[in-house]
Structures are given as structure tokens and as C-alpha cells.
Amino acid sequence: MQLSIVKKAAATQARRTVRVTVEGEVFAVTYNIEGLSLADLRQLTDAGEQTDIARYLARIIVEWELFDGDEQVPVTVETLEAMPLALVKAISEAVFADIAPSKS
After folding, report:
1. Is the Cβ–Cβ distance between 28 and 18 less than 8 Å?
2. Residues 6-26: tens digit of each pLDDT
3. FRET label pair with 104: which of 4, 57, 66, 68, CA 20 to 30 Å apart?
4. What is the model's pTM?
């Protein structure tokens, strides 16, 4: 039984929420840090324009406070690819800044 408690605690710690600001609007994005490997992070930082950021974000984002009317916008590769670049950039910068190790 203790093992399940440890697993549950680890799963809770793997989820993190960041606040994203775009054009004065603030919304939350919750992601699962275990959705990326170190190899993924290396590719994201090294690949530049060739990186498929939408695929990585869709894999780690659990939920976000983005709505189309009363409907929450689904977190999918297609949704991310259809979003304005400034919005995707703000989301990715907030998430990856939170993932990056502190420099202290």
C-alpha cells in the first residue's frame, strides 16, 4: 500500500501549472513534466526551426484555460498548429522556463 501512496505523490509532483500572459490576458497551463525526456529537451533546444513544438506541447499539456465560447479548447497537435504563433510561443516559453533547472 505504501507504494501506491508514493506513486500517487510522484504523479502529483509531475504535474505543474504555469501562468501564461498573451496580450494582457493571463491563463493557466497545466503540464506533466514526465511527458518529456532529456533527449526531447535537447532536441527542442538544438533543433531550432525543425522542431515540431506542437507535438511536444500536445504530449505534455494536461489542460489549459483556453475556451472557445463555453467549450474548452482541446489540447491537440492540430489545435496548437492552428493557433497564432505568439500564443504557442508564450505557452512554450512559460512551460520550458518552468522545466529548466534553476541557475542558483
Report:
1. yes
2. 555 455 568 999 999 999 999
3. 57
4. 0.76
